[in-house]
Request: fold
Amino acid sequence: MAGFLEMLTGPDASRLLNADATVIVPVGAIEQHGPHLPLAVDHIVASEAAGAVVDRLGDELNVWAAPTLPYSKSNEHAWSAGTIWLSNETMHRVLDDIARCLAFSGVRRLVFLNGHGGNSTLLNVACREARLAHGLLTFLIHPFIPPAYAAPDPDVASDTELGMGIHGGLRETSVMMHLRPDLVDLSKAVRNVPEWLAENDHVKFGGSVQFGWLSNDFGSVGHIGDPVGASAALGKKLFDESVGFLCEQLREIVGFDFQPCD
Amino acid sequence: MAGFLEMLTGPDASRLLNADATVIVPVGAIEQHGPHLPLAVDHIVASEAAGAVVDRLGDELNVWAAPTLPYSKSNEHAWSAGTIWLSNETMHRVLDDIARCLAFSGVRRLVFLNGHGGNSTLLNVACREARLAHGLLTFLIHPFIPPAYAAPDPDVASDTELGMGIHGGLRETSVMMHLRPDLVDLSKAVRNVPEWLAENDHVKFGGSVQFGWLSNDFGSVGHIGDPVGASAALGKKLFDESVGFLCEQLREIVGFDFQPCD
Amino acid sequence: MAGFLEMLTGPDASRLLNADATVIVPVGAIEQHGPHLPLAVDHIVASEAAGAVVDRLGDELNVWAAPTLPYSKSNEHAWSAGTIWLSNETMHRVLDDIARCLAFSGVRRLVFLNGHGGNSTLLNVACREARLAHGLLTFLIHPFIPPAYAAPDPDVASDTELGMGIHGGLRETSVMMHLRPDLVDLSKAVRNVPEWLAENDHVKFGGSVQFGWLSNDFGSVGHIGDPVGASAALGKKLFDESVGFLCEQLREIVGFDFQPCD
Amino acid sequence: MAGFLEMLTGPDASRLLNADATVIVPVGAIEQHGPHLPLAVDHIVASEAAGAVVDRLGDELNVWAAPTLPYSKSNEHAWSAGTIWLSNETMHRVLDDIARCLAFSGVRRLVFLNGHGGNSTLLNVACREARLAHGLLTFLIHPFIPPAYAAPDPDVASDTELGMGIHGGLRETSVMMHLRPDLVDLSKAVRNVPEWLAENDHVKFGGSVQFGWLSNDFGSVGHIGDPVGASAALGKKLFDESVGFLCEQLREIVGFDFQPCD
Amino acid sequence: MAGFLEMLTGPDASRLLNADATVIVPVGAIEQHGPHLPLAVDHIVASEAAGAVVDRLGDELNVWAAPTLPYSKSNEHAWSAGTIWLSNETMHRVLDDIARCLAFSGVRRLVFLNGHGGNSTLLNVACREARLAHGLLTFLIHPFIPPAYAAPDPDVASDTELGMGIHGGLRETSVMMHLRPDLVDLSKAVRNVPEWLAENDHVKFGGSVQFGWLSNDFGSVGHIGDPVGASAALGKKLFDESVGFLCEQLREIVGFDFQPCD
Amino acid sequence: MAGFLEMLTGPDASRLLNADATVIVPVGAIEQHGPHLPLAVDHIVASEAAGAVVDRLGDELNVWAAPTLPYSKSNEHAWSAGTIWLSNETMHRVLDDIARCLAFSGVRRLVFLNGHGGNSTLLNVACREARLAHGLLTFLIHPFIPPAYAAPDPDVASDTELGMGIHGGLRETSVMMHLRPDLVDLSKAVRNVPEWLAENDHVKFGGSVQFGWLSNDFGSVGHIGDPVGASAALGKKLFDESVGFLCEQLREIVGFDFQPCD
Reply:
């Protein structure tokens, strides 16, 4: 049996959260996503993706989903009402507390499933911290990696977003239309793409120079991308692909362990 | 319109989270509750109570529920697998970050709705911190105040729990049987009451001397109380009464403001 | 022999601060108490109460009073000249340092004797922190618990203070007239009672809703209560009763230890 | 005139470190690099690269190099004698102190030139922190990005390192043979490549799953890669290409500024 | 009128703690001082010296003594039961909190009167911190500077202590025999002088090389010096001289202010 | 063999950084030194002095120089562009991280060679912290101790600096003319001596009262002293004498160990 960690009793946890178990900690965010999407986007996506993965693979792979962290480091949206963000230091402390408790419980594998792109480098740091401090095997996966934090997908280089659809754009809006259509107001969706940035060779999302940006550095609209053509059908396709990919990643994760070369 | 803060868009938040709005931050916990209850008890109770209150009064009183904090300071259960706790310092930083963001958003009234007795004194401290640091009007309410943190209810002084039913006992178990019967295994419920403690005059739950305790100071069972006679019917009664009382408290909170005496 | 910890030599401390000894740490404050009382009220009351208790019971119960902490978390009076307050984080660090040293010395029982109501929830938290971090048995006692932090005394519900005499009011002023009449100027005493607050059902001192307040939220006078009728005779009665009660509490504390239920 | 910040006088700094100037902070490390390379590799590479860039472009672009941070977060090598590492929290504080001072001096553009791959995600976080806290335009560039932190170079996918040459391998050794041949002992160089890791689809350096690793997770040799075929000629080629690329990046950086989309 | 800060009322403080006032914060310690002296030595000496100075000069110079900090950084005596020490970080936070409050109150001059040699460098740092953070004029004075922290007195170079009487030796014991003879047990006094250290040219108390030491680095006795010949008469002479000198220092302090050279 | 720590490989470090080795950590600063000297003065002096000492004695005494800390606590110059300073807390964390790593590496003796007078009391504190936390033997030495932190040299009492040449004055300027004449512009040198301070009996550099000062408390020029008569010849003499003295100190340090008196 596997599934949601919080449904276990203490004695269950003592028996089941052992060295063979893997715990996923979904990381959400409460942050502005433009006029057409709710603050909860990342909270919902992380929770839904973790739930889908655990539903599909929990029993088979002995994987447990812990409760989603609703708040995380969203300070690129600090300027907007409704954004509730933890500081870098707070966030590291929260993650360390969680890792410490899971290691104490007997778990060896901790997976951060990150719904908010703005956390990805921080969580990468946290993976090493928990590896060293608590001896855990730690992993970081994403339902969707925005191009701000990875090389852009060449398939979308020519689309209306110019590879700059990093926050509340076509894909994220579509996924929300699939998961929670009641929370999307497509009539408010407008194109908001920093075309000047896409023209750069190096300093751009996914470029060779990483840079510190706040979402209001690109104006007051809030999202960055072009959600106008979003659809639930595209969202379903993207979400299903993502869950499939997360499951593939998890299969490798649960079998992963370090081996000395010498 | 009012309800769940995370369903707002950024522009909505800018408009609605104003000086007339009140935001509830429900505080849960993931911690052992004995062999018959899940780790999620406080997470569920806080979330359900906040949801019920907002459903009933949100629109009328302009009250918004923020996402429930799933993890909090549960270090009295640090000894048990499955308990995931934030340190005192981490917890204060989280609360300060949240309060700062709400104040920045324009809100004036912040209400902590606390599902975990172990947080109550910490949250009391946090109320003052947020009052001074961020100028918020801050409040602390509980669906259920365990006798460990308040004078015991004279009505229950003679029952089988001897006023010591502070964690996973008759009441909490009953409430969970009402809210989430699928997560209660009453067949595992046993009486675990520190009778020796009840005999003290001062050093006891709700006594005149407060004391530092861990739940394993009372043995290895985990809960403290007597859940044996719990029932969904009692749970429903207790929960409904609690929601009614919380609504009454909130009516006073939304009208509250300080007045100089001179 | 027992008494004041600071009068011991190092070798004495090594011999006497053992598992049978109990150490009291009195916690004072330097904070405004209105125009008729000195900043030192809580410093004096905590020190005098601890001294009286140790004089009476020190030898018999092997109880030692450590030096009084003069400064503590008085940030509800931050607005007033003369108030010297430690932040929440500083205060927790100070208490943790003290608890660590006492545990290292070999003591098992640590009692905070708190003269400043504003510390009571923080010290309650600290009791658990020291229990978990240092393995100490920890306790919190008060010479006087103001109604801001406990259920109001029904005996005083009808008096001129309306249960709101929480700071520099009738009782505290009387006690100071008994202990240090040279530091009280009753000619400056005026009634300063938030009558509007007493009319609340829930949000009030000792009410079911706890709230974050600063003493200047009630105006610029500083004290909250009605010291006009204070007298040394009442002060003596209250102080003597308090010392008697503290001694009764201590008798139970020194015999207290945890027992497993199972 | 431009060049090395530390050679300025205070009055010079006041005049020259203005809104048009760009300051590079090179970030080194003191950490084990296997038996054939010195602890100083990243310290030297970062300093040399910054020096070369400033020599070539300093005057033209008004770019200043601050002194290289010799110590940084090298905790993946904590197990090895000689590694001197700053904790995550220390490192963020150091970077924040530096950014604060540069912003105070009047500079608007801060570039971290990072010689140690293990810092790259932390520095990415720091870029946002400094953007928000101090209003700086912040950038992160690397002389060499190891595949542990970026998609692997398809050109090298078939080589003896299998894309796993992330630390003290062919390229880094060659560069050191170019820069400081006196500090390389190629007779000690051995192949140390985690072939098992290269076989993974997701959990590997540059794979879709990021993971927490320590260099001794791969055995006790210390470096990860195959330095056997390293040469000064290759090192010169790589270093010159890198400096050329850094200069190209800097040209874009000094002209970069945010533009609202709306 | 001047004297003890804690005896002021809030309104008095508002009026009197102004830019012309100087506040002394005496800093004590609770730490082992060998078998013949109590833990309280530094607490008593700092308090008595501050009291004597304020008695003599308070009114004339508008100088106020705040309550003595009983606990400070005594970690060189961490090995001994009874020593209660604040960490370096805690101590700085306490001092910053105090300085902040005094600056807020309107005071411009803050004087640390330090009874514990082990604090002297820390307090020197704190003087600058408070100068920069709070704009205070800050000063550090000592009733007695042990040779561990200053050049040794040539007059005592040939005595039985060899300039190494830094803790619980002839002078400190004599002063305590004058101030609190009831707390000195001269029958326990033995000579404990690190003769080997006195033979060094550089690494010694007051030498050109400062070094990190703990009192148990010199054995298990605790004090360092030779108290055998101590007397109340010598103590009175030393104390009176010290108070005279502190008064002379204070006269200069209250008139001190910075003047630009240009 | 001995010399520069960063030139070692990991395996070398494991073998050579043992209990017989001594590691010097030079501490520099980047801070204004007036109009005639560069920001790098302390960085250069500390590095050059450490290099000279290791060159002369490294092999003989098994002494290793770690990379110089370029940034340290220079907050007395926070007002000046170009000064880059670490806070007190950051600096202590950096030093603790370094000490921890050296202790882990197997070293027993750590020497701070401090080029910036403003660090001297902080480093004195750090010596004790590292002694207690990491068990190291710790030492603090200075190429030049300015009179702000030590008793003034009677030989210079009558010179044009009046004992107040503490920063960028005759000596420091001369040493820089010797070490890096290209970075000194003597045509900008002016006399800037706080004559009013020299007239004080107690509150002055090297006086009996230590005080918190910032360099702009003495005006806007930046240096404090009289560099007008500086010369490379004097600088060479001072530097050579200093290196000779540091070597003498180090000879004693490497043979130093604690001995119990009893």
Notes: Chain B touches chain C through 59 residues (CB under 8 Å). The two ends of chain B are 38 Å apart (CA to CA). Residues 5-254 of chain B form a domain with the Rossmann fold fold (CATH 3.40.50.10310).
